[in-house]
Structures are given as C-alpha cells and as structure tokens.
Amino acid sequence: MKMHKNVYLALAILFLISFIDSLFDIEKTQKIFFWEVNIWVYRLFRMAIAVLFMKSYLDIRNAEKSIKK
Fold this sequence. Notes:
Layout: H1 5-23, E1 29-32, E2 35-38, H2 39-68
Antiparallel strand pairs: 1-2
Helix pairs in contact: 1-2
Transmembrane segments: 40-58
Keywords: Membrane, Transmembrane, Transmembrane helix
C-alpha cells in the first residue's frame, strides 16, 4: 500500500508532539504493546518512530525532485 508523502510528514509531527508531551509526564513507566517499560524507553520509541517517518518523507520528496529534473 502506497501512502501519500504528506501522511508521513503528518505522522512524524504527531509522534514528535507525543514525544514532547511525554517529557512533561510524571509517570515512571508507560505501556508499549501491552508491556510496561521505563519512561525513557517509551520516549526513545516515540522519537525513533518520528525520525523514521520524517526520513521516509524526505526520501520520497527527494526522489520526486530527482525525477522532475
């Protein structure tokens, strides 16, 4: 399934906002896929997902630019 490139950008922004929001969380643990994990593991997970979506967006954008040249 091919997603529009702007969906990747929107998801990257949402995960980045989620990461920033977790910085203000006072809890010591969070749940990821039914497992309790340390808050820093949770934050690292959110940041990694945001970086992956941003990288996908930039790769697609650069590929489109190189095709247009």
